[in-house]
Write a structure and sequence with these properties.
- The protein has 2 domains: 95 residues, no CATH class; 109 residues, no CATH class.
- Helices cover 40% and strands 18% of the residues.
- The chain contains 8 helices and 8 strands, in the order ββαββαααββαββααα.
- The strands form 2 sheets. It has a 4-stranded mixed sheet. Strands 5-6-8-7 form a 4-stranded mixed sheet, with helices on one face.
- It is globular and about 55 Å long.
Length: 230
């Protein structure tokens, strides 16, 4: 544990047993360490995180922290025992979902916690409607994660998430404003190429590479967005 916080560390939030839970600058991590770092992480998923640390991204709306911690505790313990990531993820998602239910997320937006609302109810603000008709929306990501897809992170589109209406890209309202353009570029590129028939894995990898380049060469971001139809 660093004696004085330095990037990406921001705040030692709490200690659970031997685990130090840090609030970190996710933007710094995605730009300088790993563009695939998401809302939170632990050593067995991201080896650059120390084995006695959990990292949780600084949130614009810091209201999902306890859900993320519940997820990490399960994922970490299972992977430490050799359980493969995909299986550990499924069980950790289950624990996180219980925490979200305990917090009342489902009852707030569903009828009796059973009947799903219209997915479009999570949309908060239309960012832009492109010339080709594609719409980019800022969405209430906590609500989307709690009700529709617990693994939604940063952004997504209709070619990946079945709940996102056709012709739309959704951007997480929890990302820092300084990262919005890079996340948007990733989703635009990925969607455009999947619409042409490229498999998700390949489209995601190429989008991540382009995003990483622009994070390190931000002067290229505008041209890259324009090339994707922005």
């Amino acid at each position: 544990m660093p004696k004085t916080p330095k990037p990406p560390y921001l705040l030692l939030d709490q200690v659970r047993g031997d685990i130090h839970i840090w609030i970190v600058d996710g933007s710094y991590s995605r730009t300088n360490i790993d563009e695939e770092f998401t809302n939170f992480g632990q050593h067995y998923r991201y080896p650059y995180i120390k084995i006695d640390e959990f990292w949780i991204d600084r949130e614009t709306h810091p209201d999902e922290k306890e859900s993320f911690i519940e997820h990490l505790l399960v994922e970490f313990k299972l992977m430490a025992k050799g359980v493969p990531y995909e299986k550990a993820l499924a069980l950790a998602d289950r624990a996180e979902r219980k925490e979200r239910r305990r917090a009342g997320d489902l009852l707030k937006v569903t009828r009796h916690g059973r009947i799903l609302p219209d997915p479009k109810s999570v949309c908060e603000e239309l960012w832009k409607r492109l010339d080709n008709g594609l719409e980019v929306w800022i969405v209430n990501a906590r609500r989307f994660r709690s009700v529709f897809d617990i693994d939604f992170t940063e952004g997504g589109h209709d070619h990946v998430y079945e709940f996102i209406p056709q012709g739309q890209i959704w951007i997480d309202d929890d990302i820092d404003q300084s990262e919005g353009g890079f996340v948007l570029l990733h989703e635009l590129y990925e969607r455009n190429h999947m619409a042409k028939g490229l498999a998700y894995r390949d489209a995601h990898r190429q989008a991540s590479n382009l995003e990483f380049r622009c994070r390190h060469h931000p002067d290229e971001l505008h041209d890259a967005l324009v090339a994707q139809g922005w």
